[in-house]
Amino acid sequence: xxxxxxxxxxxxLREDRTISQVELARQLGISASYLNQIxxxxxxLTVPVLIRITELFGVDTTFFAPHDTPRLVHxxxxxxxxxxxxSDLTELATKLPExxxxxxxxxxxxxxxxxxxxxxxxxxxxxAGRSPHDQVSDFFYRRQNYIPxxxxxxxxxxxxxxxxxxxxxxxxxxRLAERHGIQVTREDASALGGELHRYRPETRTxxxxxxxxxxxxxxxxxxxIGLIECADIIDEVIEEEQVDxxxxxxLMRVGLANYFAAALIFPYQRFLTAAESMRYDIELLxxxxxxxxxxxxxxxxxxxRPKARGVPFSFVRVDRAGNMSKRQSxxxxxxxxxxxxxxxxxxxxxxNAPGRVMTQIAAMPDGQRYLWIARTVTRHLGGFRQxxxxxxxxxxxxTRHASRLVxxxxxxxxxxxxxxxxxxxxxxCERLSCAQRAAAPIGRSLxxxxxxxxxxxxxxxxxxxxxxxx
Length: 470
Known about the structure:
Layout: H1 7-16, H2 21-28, H3 32-39, H4 47-57, H5 69-79, H6 86-95, H7 97-121, H8 124-127, H9 132-142, H10 148-161, H11 168-180, E1 183-187, E2 197-200, E3 205-209, H12 214-229, H13 231-241, H14 246-265, H15 268-277, H16 282-289, H17 293-300, E4 304-305, E5 308-309, E6 314-318, E7 324-329, H18 346-349, E8 358-363, E9 369-379, E10 389-398, E11 420-421
Parallel strand pairs: 1-3, 8-11
Antiparallel strand pairs: 2-3, 4-5, 6-7, 6-10, 8-9, 9-10
Helix pairs in contact: 2-3, 5-6, 5-7, 6-7, 9-14, 10-14, 11-12, 12-14
């Protein structure tokens, strides 16, 4: 059982109510010295004491739940100078998570202000670092890829209109026609000018390309329903984010509509039950719901409803060149925001075996381990001479959850040699002895000598830096 250390949060509760340690200890029925040890994280919170605290202060037990430390540490590394050590960042994230989140939020606002200044002065190079796509990705990352209001609205609608596997597209098309007077029409891709779908409000017609598969058609129809029936919820979410840029607003609206679509096609409780019973076997889930691999993986990464949580997954989509077009996470996996991702990650190995499921136990520099599942998906719009698209889809979770997945069968998750040492990205990775490194680590002094060469492409100066290996 995981021990709960929450001294800083308990001390804050006590001080906010101007209660002394002696008085609080008396009300909790424990000694003042024991309370002092709890507040300084020398002793963990026991269940009986935790229950008495929640009753006394009127807070939920989740107030003391452990924060996502790996995620906070990674975000702090980008917000603070390199001279701040990882151990200091970990201590801050563990003992003062609210302060850590405040620092990260200040850094986020600094980047936004910098972007706005760059827009004003016309510095396009600065603006390029924070595109609308980046901002929307960051939005879903901060929300841990879970939007409760949209999820619950979609589940309620699915129950109301009777969304059933095998009949999803027909049921959704009927909803558009009967409730909104919108007809769904399939058109040849050439007639749509290469577009996959187009909604024309003047004729109340939703045109879908014939190149779309049934599951993709269902997703487009469901997203259109979301844009109409959940417009108020979507507007409120965007308003909360205080997004001023029109392009970012549009992309965020599309992202939220697609989120609603997945939640409508895969109703939360029904999908979670199926995922648990099938031990998160993605192939079985795609067959059961008649939807694609990417759609199922994306939905698996959103199952974070309180008191009904699925496995907390990170989801990523990359191409052969390493470009990350999607990154969403319900866990603390530290996606890189300052350069390419790690070439030792199995999402890239998937391109060598198209269509085959690849698994990997990956160890991060901080010692955290993840089980990653990766597979390629392909898309084609036209005929023989038309170029298609190929991506690798990755889905990962911490190894402490891996026993719930069929992909962990027969693997020793704790064996030292079983894990591949990877990092968040070459510029921020602490594995200084990695021979695969493609960029010098930020803030590190290199040991350069014109009279010698090394197998490691960016050797660090001895004594100045310490390599971190799994």
